[in-house]
Amino acid sequence: MGRAEARRARQRDARREGRAGGIRGFLTVRRLLGTFLTVCLLGVGALFVVYLLVPVPTANAQAEKESNVYKYADGSLLARTGTVNREIVGLDKIPDDVEKAFVAAENKTFYKDSGIDLKGTARGVFNTLTGGGRQGGSTITQQYVKNYYLNQDQTVTRKLKELVISLKVDQQKGKEEILAGYLNTSYYGRGAYGIQAAAQAYYRKDAQKLTVAEGAYLAALLQAPSQYDWAVASPTGRKLVSERWNYVLDNMVGQNWLDASTRSGLEFPVPKEPKAAPGMEGQTGYLVKAANAELARRGVSEDQIEAGGWTITLSIEKKRQDALVEAVDEQLEKKLDRDGDEGDATVQAGATSVDPGSGKVVALYGGVGATEHWISNATRRDYQPASTFKPVVLATALETGAQTQDGRPIGLETIYDGTSKRPVEGGDTPFAPENEDDRSYGPVTVQKATDSSVNSVYAQMIVDVGPGKVKETALGLGMQDGDGWPVRPAMSLGTMGASTWDMAAVYATLDNHGEKVTPSIVKDATHRTREVAAAPEGGDRVISREAADTVTKAMTGVVRDGSGRNARGDYHAAGKTGTSENNRSAWFVGYTPELVTAVALFGENPEGGQVTLTDTVNAGRANGGGVPALIWQQYTTGALGGGSDKRFDLELLRPVPEEPPASPSGTPSGSEEPEEPSEEPSQPEEPDDPPSDSPDPSPSDDRPTRPGDTAGTTEGTDSGTTEGGGTDSGTTEGGESDGGAANAGTAEGTTEGTTAGVQPRPRAS
């Protein structure tokens, strides 16, 4: 090797040594540490910038959505409405040991940490980047933030936002608020969001009644709701959730949140089978609709209800509600062929039952089903109440001390002329209604006219009293004003519109001795952020006790000896039948001392028009003393547990016995003599025998009777009239003039005739 070549070799070696020495000099501990700190500072700075730039957002739309929960009076579930099955509750509604079960399951350091788990979050980010699944080890605060502010997307961006927002939320909110939010936003399976919905879905109870064992199961569910649902879980799933349940309880013992001896005695709480939430089918939709309507009257708008979050407890008593539905099914639906008979398909039934002491609606029947016939037959006001309005006329006469045209005070013993088509005297509007079957009763007491629903008597009585005064009393008792309520003599036949709800209010006020009863179906309504006005209260006196009680006395005769005999049972009862013009509606409204119920049938064609009930549920006219009274009787018997010994406590106006004068104005002409009192009611084979004209027995004689002691009734149709020299449709006496011009319509008057005879059976001893 030459000298030049050796020199070049030495130069190459020197350059190599220089490079190696430079790298070793650069990679010193100091330089490595400095680089690490620089990276950390940059990272912290970046996080600080992100912390400043990322705000705590408003709640996502899903997080605040709630269902409305409707309950029966006893607290059992009636229905749940809304797209999200959630009912938000505060921690005060969740047992402390149940709260601790969730903390033990998800985040034992929850009460002490800063709201984040950096290691768990880093693991979650790594799993997301590598497709390693959803496991992330988040704290309760982070899970709450994800549920309430963000979404369930598995992205790095979402996880970083979750970290920052969790830090801020932990600083801004207390631990209890965060825990409550977490429990109310988590998904538990079975369509249940939040612990209240989960408690109902798995254990059929409210969250506040959960045991620690049940709470531990719900806490265990959150890890894998579908896999851990005991009802559908595989053997592996059941094994895993059992292990998870034990893990939760053991952690509680370790944190001194559960006594070891208590823990050892706990057994796995197998949840109940899944059950679909009730929908709007059957009577449910009618009940929900009535409750919402009342809330609207009490200041809760429709959009506030639609926003959700309401827990609404109705006054409906489930046993009585079931009894009412069963009575309609037995006495009406089983007698109809809705699919095969066009006439039968037109029959609609409605009913409202009220506690007269409180005004609570305890049962309501709206129709065949809310998903099939949405209009509630319990609250609709487009049909005439017919002769069920006559007690209002009598009440007004008694309250105002009204007199007949010849100056005799009106009472139950006052004698009127019951001649059919007899023109009324003393009125501004000519009116001469026909009694049922054009039957004339001659001289007849007010009691007998009430028992047999004699149209001619009540037409004269309303003129004697004054139609305007009668309407004022009707509105005070609970009826509603509206179109089609002309203040004329035909009003005595109930030609205005009214609902079973309205008529139940009227009769409840009479049952309550003249003090106002306002029906209410909402027992309680609560919301986290809103308040609702109190339920309407009665208590104001509408008429004197003596007037109300005397009307009650009169109507006990209707049930005992008159057109309402099919309503008799083992209870003391008062009531009135009614059948409207063209037999478009048939009513029985009655009460015992503790329960008031209005039952009605309506004829309605598929287009919503009113049609006759004749030859539908039974051959001929469908009278109020027939199917409506039978429904009332069966329901009342069931609702009272088979019967009641409670008696009416009546304070009556002084009776005014009298003999019929020769021919006073507005009184019998003397062409017919009063009938002799009858000791026994008419028998089925003689349904048209006139009932007794005798005065009612004394209150001590007023005893419960059974349905069917006599089969027939003489109950008059209240529709037709002849007013102003013409005929009147009974609904809106159109075309009438003060000069006696004819009214439009037809005269179909009558006092509700014979009804479905029930075979007689002995009276109760």
From TrEMBL:
A single GO molecular-function term is: peptidoglycan glycosyltransferase activity
Segments for region (Disordered): 408-441, 560-579, 655-765
Which GO terms are recorded in the biological process aspect for this UniProt protein? cell wall organization; peptidoglycan biosynthetic process; proteolysis; regulation of cell shape
Where the record annotates domain Penicillin-binding protein transpeptidase, the positions are 351-599
Q: Look up keyword Transmembrane helix and say if it applies.
A: yes
Residue ranges, compositional bias (Low complexity): 707-721, 739-757
Alphabetized InterPro entries for the sequence: Beta-lactam/transpept-like (IPR012338), Glyco_trans_51 (IPR001264), Glycosyltr_51/Transpeptidase (IPR050396), Lysozyme-like_dom_sf (IPR023346), PBP_transglycosylase (IPR036950), PCN-bd_Tpept (IPR001460)
Q: Where are the transmembrane segments?
A: 32-54
Q: Where is the Glycosyl transferase family domain?
A: 75-252
Q: Does the entry feature the keyword Transmembrane, yes or no?
A: yes
Q: Which catalysed reactions does the entry list for this protein?
A: Preferential cleavage: (Ac)2-L-Lys-D-Ala-|-D-Ala. Also transpeptidation of peptidyl-alanyl moieties that are N-acyl substituents of D-alanine; [GlcNAc-(1->4)-Mur2Ac(oyl-L-Ala-gamma-D-Glu-L-Lys-D-Ala-D-Ala)](n)-di-trans,octa-cis-undecaprenyl diphosphate + beta-D-GlcNAc-(1->4)-Mur2Ac(oyl-L-Ala-gamma-D-Glu-L-Lys-D-Ala-D-Ala)-di-trans,octa-cis-undecaprenyl diphosphate = [GlcNAc-(1->4)-Mur2Ac(oyl-L-Ala-gamma-D-Glu-L-Lys-D-Ala-D-Ala)](n+1)-di-trans,octa-cis-undecaprenyl diphosphate + di-trans,octa-cis-undecaprenyl diphosphate + H(+)
Please provide, in alphabetical order, the Gene Ontology terms of the cellular component aspect for this entry. outer membrane-bounded periplasmic space
> What protein family is recorded?
In the C-terminal section; belongs to the transpeptidase family.
What is the protein name for this chain? Penicillin-binding protein
